[in-house]
Specification:
With 288 residues, the chain is an alpha/beta fold. The chain has 12 helices and 17 strands. The protein has an 8-stranded parallel β-barrel, surrounded by 5 helices. It has a 3-stranded antiparallel β-sheet with strand order 3-4-5, with helices on one face. Strands 7-8 form a two-stranded antiparallel ribbon. The protein is globular, with a radius of gyration of 19 Å.
Length: 288
């Protein structure tokens, strides 16, 4: 019976189970530092204790001004890995006449593979891709095709939410529901930003219970009422805000989340580097 049961599990499922859990930081958290001194900033990140980073800067085939091979060496020398990265998949990355990706997106995937990424993540959706239900559903087919392209290099394609996915609806369905229901989990990973959604009134625990086992990556974030800016809430030190962060990540750990990526975008008087250092200590205290 045990052998018969084992045959029901796919190779993909075993791969997911065996993927090691990791703690990382999204470099957008220290975006100004990375603009001024990327090498010095990465060294400080490594000194804090982070072993994994997630990029938010890929322009003209360069990461923070460095080509893929050069940036890989920089990370290797500092003992850092980059398991995922953010590059928005735009409408012009897909050529409908050729039914294929443009070179720009193929290069994105190629360079991600050089960096050793596990997931190539698009962190948003342009307005043009979500004007109508049919527009969005067609683009979800492109998401799945991107998953197939990434799979050839041993990676996954992924998507990361903001708030609009929960506040905007098409055909009486939220954008988020349409994305989750029209992407193949074997090809398209979901990175759940547990803080962004709060500005749309959505709660991570509810979303995770609605879609169990769909979030292999997570942006670990807390939120506090904003004193400035365009949204009612802004990010803060983990445990200092209104999000039940530990409960969320503990549920994630039980339901297949492997990448726990700290992100803090607002700092309430602290420096960005001080903030991510404090977040690191809290995550370690919580057992991550």
């Amino acid at each position: 019976m045990a052998l018969a049961g084992a045959t029901l599990f796919s190779a993909d499922l075993f791969a997911a189970i065996n993927t090691p859990e990791l703690l990382g930081v999204q470099l957008y958290s220290i975006r100004e530092d990375m603009k001024k001194d990327p090498l010095g900033s990465l060294k400080k990140v490594a000194e804090i204790g982070y072993k994994n980073v997630e990029h938010a800067n890929y322009i003209d085939r360069k990461f923070y001004g460095y080509g893929a091979k050069e940036f890989r060496k920089i990370l290797d020398d500092l003992g850092l890995k980059m398991p995922s990265g953010h590059t928005v998949m735009r409408k012009d990355h897909w050529d409908e006449t050729k039914n294929d990706f443009t070179d720009a997106w193929k290069w994105t995937v190629e360079d991600a593979a050089i960096l050793g990424q596990q997931i190539v993540i698009s962190p948003s959706l342009e307005q043009a891709q979500r004007k109508t239900y049919d527009d969005l559903k067609r683009f979800m087919d492109v998401f799945n095709k991107s998953g197939e392209l990434c799979k050839k290099s041993g990676m996954r394609f992924g998507y990361h939410n903001h708030a609009f996915e929960f506040s905007e609806k098409l055909n009486d369905q939220t954008i988020f529901d349409i994305i989750l229901q029209n992407t193949d989990p074997k090809l398209v990973a979901q990175q759940l930003d547990v803080g962004n959604m709060y500005n749309a009134g959505a709660k991570a625990l509810d979303v995770m219970k609605k879609y169990p086992d769909r979030f292999e990556s997570m942006h670990v974030k807390d939120e506090i009422k904003s004193t400035e800016g365009h949204e009612p809430y802004e990010s803060t030190i983990l445990g200092a805000g209104v999000i039940p962060v530990k409960e969320i990540i503990d549920l994630g750990r039980k339901s297949g989340t492997k990448h726990f990526i700290v992100e803090q975008e607002s700092y309430q008087g602290k420096t960005p580097m001080e903030s991510i250092a404090q977040d690191f200590k809290i995550m370690k205290k919580w057992g991550y």
